[in-house]
Amino acid sequence: MKKLNICIAGGGSTYTPGILAGLIKTKNKFPLKKLILYDNDEKWLEKMGKLAQIMMRDYYPSLEVIYTVEREKAFREIDFVFCQIRTGGLKMREKDEKTALRHGVIGQETCGPGGFSYGMRSIKDMIELVKEVRKYSKDAWFLNYTNPAAIVAVALEKEFPNDKRILNICDQPINLQLAYARMLDKDYQDLIVHYFGLNHFGWVTKVIDKKTNKDYTKKLKDLIKEKGFAPVDKEQRDPSCLVTYNAVQVMLKHDPTYLPNTYLQYYLLPKRSLATLDPNWTRANEVMAGRERRVFAECEEAIKNDSAENTTAVKIDLNKKNAHGDMIVEIAESIYNDTNKYYIVIVKNDNIISNFEKDAMVEVLCKLGKDGAKPYKVGKISTYYKALMQQQYAYEKLAVEAYFENSYLKALQALTLNRTVVDQELAKKILDSLIEINGSYWPELK
Ligand code: NAD
Ligand code: G6P
Ligand code: MN
To answer: For residues 95 and 49, is the Cβ–Cβ distance under 8 A?
Structure first.
């Protein structure tokens, strides 16, 4: 078996330890020669790089681990890039969320004005990163988690239309699947979850048992309506996440047609969602005080003790499923070994949803193999879903065009179209505030 070289771009991310655990868990099926952690911030990178070296020394001794801020060193002769960068960091996420809330609308990482603001920051870095990767490794698979994945996917498709080895992914569908599996008392791998939508904007249409072919959709809906809905993964158990999962029950009781993604609450229940958000303590604050502090404290302790035994990555992620880390590793493994695992990922629509924009980047159930994602056809969607998706896709497309064309007008149109905003005057006020907080992170809009 050929041994692979992989690079984690945004290696300083607090999600890296979960990915390291995923790589250890799959080392027999997905054997690595070299792991490179790349980041543009030496401070985060050094801590995470040292943790990776300690952890792999003990759990994956054959693996060479390096960390670097040099792109050539990071991207030369690699087979996979796992990308998870955050332009502007969590500090800018905090500003995004608080700015929106100050204007009385949803303040969220990827949805509404927060997602717009973040998208306009991410595009430039993402394009640059892909170009650099292609300079040194033209055939590497580029698996991207970087948010807002919806906007990043549209932008990358526009800039690199012929690059078939870029795949944008989101861990929320697998998080939903884990929650369904627990409710049905099954393993998540026993389930096939049919899904359609845009990223953070979609619906589960059917949940099937892989072995028996039995349809569990109705049972699941009844269970959620009766008992509520709760996260499984440890990263999704903070108070604000529980509120988010709760919204699934509310939406389902109103409309039992499909099982909604948690993120739909921001668009379908904006008033309810807004009431749960605190303009002085947003999710970014929760993450900085929680996951970020914990993970870097664990890195420092591991470095001091020259042992990773006390880290969550070793204590929990190595023994249990880690939705985020395992997903990207399993997708890579499935591509490498052509194992055709089922995953819900983001792909170009073409004709998957037959009555929807061909160039949209949609999120659907796929099999992952050596040629990438093979999507299941969705067919025709009905008026309500089509209308919602069309409005949201128009927002995504205009946001990306605003970036490429430096267009203030398109940015304004995008925000006006977003269901969390709607009012044109409000959209303008928000846009002006976002321009102010983003400074040179954004292209200059004229
Ligand atoms: P984070 O800020 O803690 O980590 C991001 C890392 O990327 C930092 O170490 C930072 O220094 C680095 N970075 C920023 N810009 C860079 C650039 N241009 N080049 C190289 N490195 C750069 O953020 P996080 O909370 O760990 O999340 C990381 C990313 O993963 C975010 O984009 C987040 O939205 C995304 N994410 C996506 C999903 C999904 O479902 N798609 C799930 C979880 C996280
Ligand atoms: C889920 C979503 C991601 C998002 C993350 C936010 O995993 O799928 O797209 O980035 O939640 O998590 P956080 O803990 O940073 O709020
Ligand atoms: Mn996501």
So the answer is: no
Q: pLDDT for 284-321, tens place per residue?
A: 999 999 999 999 999 999 999 999 999 999 999 999 99
pLDDT per position as a tens digit, 124-164: 999 999 999 999 999 999 999 999 999 999 999 999 999 99
- Look-up: residue for tokens 């072919």? 213
3-state class (DSSP) for residue 438: helix
Overall pTM surpassing 0.90 (yes/no): yes
Assess whether the C-beta atom of 9 lies below 6 angstroms from ligand 1.
yes
Rounded distance from Cα 124 to ligand 1 centre (Å): 14
Q: Which of 66, 56, 52 is nearest to 17 (CA)?
A: 52
What distance in angstroms lies between residue 9's CA and the mean position of ligand 1's atoms?
9
Residues annotated as catalytic are: 171, 263
CA 419/CA 412 separation, integer angstroms: 13
User: Buried (b) or exposed (e) across 292-314, using 16+ Cβ within 10 A?
Assistant: beebbebbeebbeeeebeebbbb
**How many A from CA of 446 to the centre of ligand 2?**
32
Beta-carbon count within 10 A of 239 CB: 9
Question: Measured from the CA of 14, which atom of ligand 1 is nearest?
Answer: 26
